Amino acid sequence: MSRAWVWAPVLAALAAPSVLASSDSTAAIPRLTRQVTAAVRAQRVEAPVAVNVTGASAELRRAVSTLLASQLASAGLAPVVLEAPTAEAAEAQARAQGARTLMRISLDIEGGELRARGDVLGTWVNFWSGRTPTRPARPAATVVETVPADAAVLALALEAGGTTPPVPTETPLQGIRLMGATLATLEHPLAALAAGDLDGDGREEVVALTEHDVSVFDASGRLIARKALEALPAASATTREPFGALAILPGPPRVAAWSTRHAHGELLALDKARGTLRTVGTVDQAPLGAVERGSFVPGQTAFAPTVTLAEGRSLTVPAPFTTASLEAQRMLFVHPDGSAAYYAHAGASPLRWSNLGAGSALGDLNGDGVPELITTSPQLAPSPDRVRVFATTGDDPGTHEPLWQGALPTGRALYVVTANLDGDKRHEVIVGLWKPDGTSELFLLRQGAP
Amino acid sequence: MRLRSTLACVALLASASAQAAGRPRYGGELRVAHGGPPEIGEPALADTPLEATLLGLLTRPVCQDTRDEGAVPALARQLSRPTAQALQLTLPSATSAQGLARAWMRLASNEGASPYRALLHAVRGEARQLTPRGAVLELPLSYPWPDLERALCHPALAPPVSATPVGPFTAAGRGALEAQLAWPQGRPYLDRLQLTATDQRGLSRLWSSRQVQVELGVASETDSVAGTALYATFLAFSPRRLPADFRQAVESAIDREDLTRLFVQAPAQPMPHLLPPALLDAPGRPRPAAPPATPSRTVTLLYDASVEDQRAVAERIQVKLHDRGYTVALEALSRAALRARWAKGDFELMLHALLLPPVPGPALAVVLEAGGRRDLLGVELPAIGALPAATARDARARERALALAGSVPLVPLYAQGLGMRFAPDVGGVMMDAQGLPSLDGLYVLPAEGAALGGRP
Predict the structure, then answer these.
(1) Closest CA to A232 of A266, A191, A200, A257
(2) A239, A352, A436 ranked by CB distance to B186: nearest
(3) Whole-model pTM above 0.90?
(4) Which of B355, B205, B195 is nearest to B276 (CA)?
(5) Once rounded to an integer, what is the mean pLDDT over residues B236-265?
(6) Is pLDDT at A15 greater than 80 in this prediction?
(7) Which of A145, A301, B14, B363, CA to CA, is 20 to 30 A from B331?
(8) Helix (H, G, I), strand (E, B) or coil at B197
């Protein structure tokens, strides 16, 4: 992974003042540092204030320290940033540098949240204490502040140089450990999700379909373009739940989108300069992949079993399916009951897999050239839903322990795609969640530092 | 926002562990028993919560009230406001638009004899003349009435069942209903519902023997779910035919708590004001003293023969008013006959039960109409509708309901909801803001570890 990309979302934000103004109020790190600064100010601390941040990656620590120091300086607290290896060393350094207050916080990213935990203490030493480093009674406070993580946090949390992080105990073989953050939110429930390189820059965009529109997001979750679908004619038999098909077609790259709310779909081309999606045709077959086509079961959130593959070849899978994932020659079709048909290559006999969720995808997460299976919980309404990663080399993955699994934010996780957002060999995972309030969330999972 | 995202899920999580790959499964049949009539009449008369629920399987109003104070399309594909003073409805077809316009014009006319016509009061000409343009029905307003959309979601404003499907199911004979694939909001998950009409004993028997998976109209308070109590029963009286102190006589004689607890089918609540406690939660005034004794007089109390507990309530009122010098004769009528007598003002006393909308303004409109104070609609509703904020309109309607209580010849008695039971293998139980279950959203949960291999 290129180091340049790690900083790309941050640099992009800095390079675009108009964006910065709006994103500053919602971006995770500025929000967190504002909250921490407010918590410190509430303690009526005395300047200078020494700041020591530990945990997470060096880049994330530095980014938080920088913004925190800026916030504290604006508040007239004359910050001093320390880089002490331990809490005790930080206290000694703070006294040595003449600070009157020390803030020690550690960072962690868990469950899609960026959290700062620590304490605030006084470092002034009473004259009568002599050489003994006594502490004053005040200030003395705890700090626990949490904000939803975002794509910039995940980018900064990557190990320096994009190296694989230390192997955690739960994933001893493949070294998959994913960290999650909200990539983007949508006003309506998702109907389909896809990813592909629409602008030819080597990095894939994320495309989301709702009953109302198609939206394209970049790697940092910024909305690039949106196209309303309201003008399309209504379908004669729609589905109760939003459902549809979405695929990126090659040469030139186009988005094929069809919501079951409408009688047909649209073929859209991205005009990045203008930030628009332009209609270039209609879609009358459900797009399952670059060349693969299917058809909806009328009124149901499922596709009919017959699929048209490249060169007009036909494939009939064992039953209607709710999800299709096509990765190189491999094909996965998830049925409504949580079973799936997996084809190792076109023409192969299907393997029957079990215990898959509606959100399932094949994607190479560790860069070894073999795709993993990423799947949500097979239950109807699990709380919380979980995302699981399995190897695809053996038999039915559903009968094995996952390589990695983690809880997802609140909501129904019905969509999973993998995307190469940074141009390296490893794919990121995007989970589409229906939120209880009728909105949707795109939740990004990528390899990261513990 | 679509209905699915805004309704409250009551029992979905009960069986959430069943394997279904994150989505409800299609197909199957549910057996539903209910304590209502085997046949349901026209929407304006099918206004008990149970009848409205059953009718809602075959015909739906243009929209459905949501719990977040909004309205989502049901029969209509779209509701929009081209201007603040006009509402535009886009129906699935020109035929359904014409059918709806005819139904509303009939309801709005005197011939309709329905208190629910008050829901259309804000429409220019009080909706007596509506002309759709193709599938579009435009409703120009006489005065600002932001709550019109939510008022139009009332089940009484659904078009009558006809050859053109206007609900999520279609009748297939012998109590069977089949899913309508072309329902604008998406076909029901189930393929079929099998309805059985029975009485309370029959409901208990069918439930205990597990012969049904859904029961509607359950009086038992154990293992049951209750919808919001918006079915309000009033004692309507004719001020022209009764003495001025009649209200005082009734209020002094009747204990609402006692009446609700002992004579009314659960779930029910005493209703001390013109609006049910779900819309107006304020303590009732103390019971007044009995008026001075007067010579005995005979009055007739009309009640709805099809509502089981109205007879018990009528008899209780008969006993209590006897203590105040009234000899009350009871007369049971069909609901249609009762409404016709109400429309003509041909009654002395009447038990008048109404399914009130879940919004205070439109609910007050129906109550004023039912109380024979149509003259107040043109005064009260524009003042409420002029307030842009929904909370301000609701507050104003509640305030006016309290202020007008003495001038509307209705004595509020109690409000009821719909009692229901669902078997553990039934998923997707949701209640709308009207307190009615959305049966088209039900599905059969697969058994734990169910067989794999495709669709059920």
Answers:
(1) A266
(2) A239
(3) no
(4) B355
(5) 91
(6) no
(7) B363
(8) strand
Nearest to B452 among A339, A382, A414 (CB): A339
- pLDDT class for B158, splitting at 50, 70, 90? very high
* ipTM of the prediction: 0.81
Are A279 and A309 spatial neighbours (Cβ–Cβ below 8 Å)? no
In tens, the pLDDT along B329-372 reads 999 999 999 999 999 999 999 999 999 999 999 999 999 999 99
Give A374 to chain B, closest Cα distance, Å. Answer: 14
User: Residues A336, A310: contact at Cβ < 8 Å?
Assistant: no
- Among B25, B184, B186, select the one facing A336 at the smallest CB separation: B25
DSSP B44: T
The three-class DSSP label of residue A237 is coil
Give A319 to chain B, closest Cα distance, Å: 5
Calpha distance A403→A424 (Å, rounded): 21
> How many C-beta atoms lie closer than 10 Å to residue A167's C-beta?
14
What would you report as the CA-atom Rg of chain A, rounded to the nearest whole angstrom? 25
* Closest CA in chain B for residue A375: B21
* Candidate from A319, A357, A436 with C-beta closest to B453: A319
Residue of A nearest to B5 (CA): A438
Reported as a single tens digit per residue, the pLDDT across B75-98 is 998 899 999 899 999 998 899 899
Closest residue of A to B12, CA-based?
Answer: A381
Cβ separation A211–B2 shorter than 8 A: yes
Which pLDDT tens digit goes with each residue over A111-158? Answer: 778 889 999 999 877 777 777 778 888 889 998 888 888 888 887 876
pLDDT > 60? residue B124 = yes
Best A229, A380, A440 residue to mutate vs chain B (most B CBs within 10 Å): A380
Do β-strands A351-353 and B176-179 pair in parallel, antiparallel, or remain unpaired? Answer: unpaired
Alpha helices in B164-211 (DSSP H): 200-208
Residue B218: band (very low, low, confident or very high) from pLDDT cuts 50, 70, 90: confident
Q: How far are the Cα atoms of A360, A364, A368 from residue A176, in angstroms, in the given order?
A: 17, 11, 12
Spatial contact of A213 and A234, defined as CB atoms under 8 Å apart: no
Contacts of A234 in chain B (CB under 8 A): 77, 184
Handedness of CA A353, A355, A358, A360 (dihedral sign): negative
pLDDT at B151 over 70: yes
